[in-house]
Design a protein that fits this description.
Mean pLDDT of chain A: 81
Largest sheet of chain B: 5 strands, mixed
CATH class of the largest domain in chain A: Mainly Alpha
Low-confidence stretches of chain A: 1-42
Number of helices of chain A: 9
CATH architecture of the largest domain in chain A: Orthogonal Bundle
Oligomer: heterodimer
Strand order of the largest sheet of chain B: 1-31-32-33-34
Radius of gyration of chain A: 21 Å
Radius of gyration of chain B: 23 Å
CATH topology of the largest domain in chain A: Cytochrome Bc1 Complex, Chain D, domain 2
Helix content of chain A: 25-40%
Low-confidence stretches of chain B: 8-25
Amino acid sequence: MNIEYMFAIMTSSAIRRWSALEVVLALLWVGGPAIAQNQNAALDHPVQYAPADIAFGASLYSGQCTTCHGSTGDGVGGVNLGSGKFRRATTDRELTTIISTGIAGTAMPGFKFNATEVDGLIAYLRNMNSFDLSSVKPGDVKRGKAIFEGKGACLACHRVQGKGSYVGPNLSDIGTVRGAGALERSLIDPTSGLMPINRPVRAVKKDGTVITGRRLNEDTYSVQLMDTNGRLLSLMKGDLREYQISTKASMPSYKNELDATELADVMAYLLSLKGS
Amino acid sequence: MMTRRLLFAMVLLGAAWGASSSLDAQVTEQRLTNAAREPQNWLTYSGTYFSQRYSTLNQITPANAKNLELKWMFQTRLAGTWQATPLVVDGVMYITQRINDVIALDAKTGRVFWTYQYTPSPDHKACCGANNRGLAILGDTLFMGTVDAHLVAIDAKDGRPLWNTQVADMKSAYSLTVAPLVVKDKVIVGLGGGELGIRGFIAAYDVKSGKEVWRFYTIPGPGERGHETWEECPPNAPTYCDPEAWKHGGASVWLTGSYDPALNLTYWGVGNAGPSHNPSQRPGDNLYTCSVVALNADTGKLTWHYQFVPNEKYDFDATQIPVLADIDWNGQPIKAMLFANRNGVYYVLDRVTGRFLFGRPFVKVNWLSGFDERGRPNQTPQSFDQPTWPGTQGGTNWYSPSYSPRTGLFYIPAWENYANFVGGTPTQYQEGRNFGGCCTKPYGPVPGAPGVPSIQRGPINNWTETAGSGAVIAIDARTGEQKWKYSFTDVTDSGILTTASDVLFTGVREGFFHALNARTGELLWRVSLGGQIVSGPMTYQVDGKQYVATIAGHSLVVFSLRD
């Protein structure tokens, strides 16, 4: 993978106008992808964007947008992206449309960014005036892959393009379905980013057999899971002595296992995974 | 410093990789070859390489079939006929649904483990309802053809795509509706599009990489044996003659072939020539249209062929399932191929050499009067004002037959009393356009009365059985002599399954699903499922219980004996 998808990690000085509290809140953001959806209909866009998403957007902007718009967003006459105000868009949805389809009758073309990339770009556009691009320390996809497959031992649970384990979710296209902010959360505080469908299951059959695994599907009477041996299993709840679904992720936190550069590298690698 | 937790993860990684080698061998070449020895599973489209749709499971018997009850149903999200046959591997069922989704279900409960949705190009030109008939599996990898002519490998554990190969150009109306066949380390497919002017082929792809290993054109090109059967146009031809007929002469392949591991031959039925109804613009026998071909599974080289209808004009494409069986012939055991053809004739061939042993009609036919000593039919074409039996949809079609080694009977889902008026008009080829050559019209006892719809009908049967009706016809595999018949009012598009307890399962377009006594044709049990049954029933076993699955309308329906 080339470096155009390098994730950019942000130092605290990168967010000049963010308070320490805001940064902490953003890093601990819990819920769906930070900027993917506007959850509040009264707002045009979220109040805050995850720093990781902003940084990711900055790296995309740097590679794809500066030719016309310039590094400060005022390269096109009459357009100042850094102002935080857009003539033809108010909402994130409208920004998405412009980025994806361009503006007819102008030099602005449509770009084939995936949803995660568009989210990152919008996060950056909304924060250009408070973000120091020069402070960004980019992650490296190749180094990230090496950490993912080596020191991080991520393949012990995850699978990427036919390699690794089935115990955790397959990450082959994670770069198209999770934003940088969500990935950062999962690496640092996995439980906060745990999708409910992936919750760990522990079941004990009436004969005492213990089964653990990752939930795939569930109904009133049965549960389907990928067990820790990589088998697809379907259990009837009536056949179980115990049945627990944990909201705590089985995945370890990498907060203290990887340094900031290594985390940036792993995220750059994850964001480069776009399926086959 | 690596923490204990990460160290544990590293150990897990090693364990997972170690385990993956055994997981990779989940469905081995050997298991596919010996699929008949593990009847709890259904490992290929037709059950085994011999395509007999016969299972040695015997829990459901003629005596207890009346105790069959519904276990679960699964409804597809798309409308249209659903022709797929599921695979079952160690308690997990894999099935395709229109257009190109794959679903993994718990075979006991029908609950879904995962779904994979392939989005084909909206510009595909798949003929006749954009069906998908199913999957193949090797190791932990599933293989599916798509209506826009791609072949996709999918991880059977989590439904993730592993590779995607473009097999042919959909702009030329190529499509893949066939369930692939895995042989050794190759996955083999045939191409659809025979009504749209393709030049058909069968091709094999490496199971790991998706790279093409061999390709056999079902219409030989210049310099290849058989090309001479696409004869040059005579000077001053009285009607339109196409000098490049072979380039778009059809010969599609859209039902799964068979394989004999001992001979290393794979057998595939080949479709009609294009344009279907105007043979005069493509003079010659038009090999290998309306034929069965035997190919070396490693190289794709032709070993032998037999053509059922030279220079065919009826749309009698011979894509039916070649059923392989070892039977007695004049007191000697032979390796035979049993072939119930759309043209209404049951054939027995020597599958080692391709030698024609005999052909005998199983429904009324008038397009031939007999065969010469090499098996070439003496054709008796009818004029356009006279009906041709069987009609265009054939005496049988995509509906899989079954052969029971126990009864020695071959079971055919048949259309009887069914005819068409067949004519043809000159047709210029245009890429991706219909290339049927005009014309057929239904034959009925009353002029203007509705005929039998070829694919689907509404809830009212507005014709009569004299315009066409369905039946299960049981014939002696060695002679073609009819032993019994179970007749329906409507036609049937359902395949047939037989078991070692002499139970036969089949559906009908009316939506009934039946269990019959395979020896006598006696009705043992039936249920109305409310939707047209157009797929082949199959059976499997989980935790000691035998299940039977069929598809009716938009529902996959599974039965077993009452607990």
